[in-house]
Amino acid sequence: MHGLTAALSALAILIAPGALASEADPHQLYENKCAGCHSPHAGDFVWLELDAGQEPLVGRNSGGSVAALLERGHGRLTPAEATILLAHFQAIRTSGQLFRTKCRMCHDTATGLVSRALILRDGTLTGRYTGRDIAQFLTVHGRLTPSEAEQMLGVLERIATSVDRID
Fold first, then answer.
1. 61-67: long-range contacts (C-beta < 8 A, 24 or more apart)?
2. How far does the signal peptide extend, from start to end residue (predicted)?
């Protein structure tokens, strides 16, 4: 079982969440299968309910492996859904808490922001209604440093490619 957990963890880290979007929107999957018992949003779950200092991901209170728990079908997850969620949690963790610390005071969630106001046009993240190039906009928005603007662009693009929605 330990080998399977390690393999699942490695696979989840290597697979880009956008590549899994055709199977399921990780945000919607979390909200449908997990939010009833855990935090309403996956980002809150990762930062509030998982131990930020532990690798691989473990529960803050239980100390148990998230991969092992998901692998056993916690939340009635299929193996494919477990892989999607584990990759999603890892991507959230890797992206840091930049949205939480710099953006959340004005924008409720990154997923909500992307769904309401942003769109990928010809591979470029763009303001849905303004047509503004978001990479350029972030350099002068939210008091982001150049490296934070680049990091936030990556987060928003990851979400835009993983969220199933009709444009």
1. 65/5, 67/5, 67/8, 67/9, 67/12
2. 1-21
Name residue 138's amino acid. L
Torsion angles phi and psi, residue 70, rounded to 5: -65, -40
DSSP state of 6: H
- Two structure tokens written together for 49: 């309910």
The structural domains of the chain, with segments of one domain joined by +, span 2-95, 99-162
d(CA 75, CA 64): 15
The backbone region for 67, taken as left when phi is positive above 0, alpha when psi lies in -120 to 50, beta otherwise, is alpha
The predicted-structure confidence for 97-155, as pLDDT tens digits, reads as follows 899 899 999 998 898 999 999 999 999 999 999 999 999 999 999 999 999 999 999 99
Question: Whole-angstrom Cα distance, residue 163 to residue 151?
Answer: 19
- What is the pTM for the complete model shown? 0.72
